[in-house]
Amino acid sequence: MSKEIKKSAIEKEKEKEQERLLSVLPMRKHFLKEYFDFLDKHIDKERKPSLKLTEEFCKINALDFEKVKIWAVSFEAFDDQEILWNIEELYEVHMKEKE
User: Fold this and answer.
1) DSSP output for 25-91
2) Claim: this prediction has a pTM higher than 0.85
């Protein structure tokens, strides 16, 4: 497989993941940036891996925590830090491509 074909296949796979990110989003799209900002702002408070910040954000914004948790796990993000690493990066790439 040539490098170009391989690169194209990888890019198409990323696009699918980015589209899936938004299509299965358990909150309104406008909450997503606020959610990531909230995690960024408070992540230093977490001493060990958990979803405490996600749960807090959900309570504040009347979101279904269980649905958000399932959504995060579907992107292999099992705690707040992994949400920032795995999902925020995917979201940011998607938003830059839309500009």
Assistant:
1) -SS-HHHHHHHHHHHHHHGGG-SSS-SHHHHHHHHHTT--HHHHHHHHHHTT--SHHHIIIIIIHHH
2) no
